[in-house]
Amino acid sequence: MKIKILLVVLSLVMLVSQNCNQPGIAGLSSNNILGKDATKKLLDAATQIDAIYLRATTSSSTVSTSSAYLAAALLNGILVPIVAGLEDEKYYLKDGVDKCVKDIYALGLVIDNYLTVALSCDIKPTPVVGLP
Question: Which positions carry the signal peptide feature in this UniProt record (predicted)?
Answer without folding.
Answer: 1-22
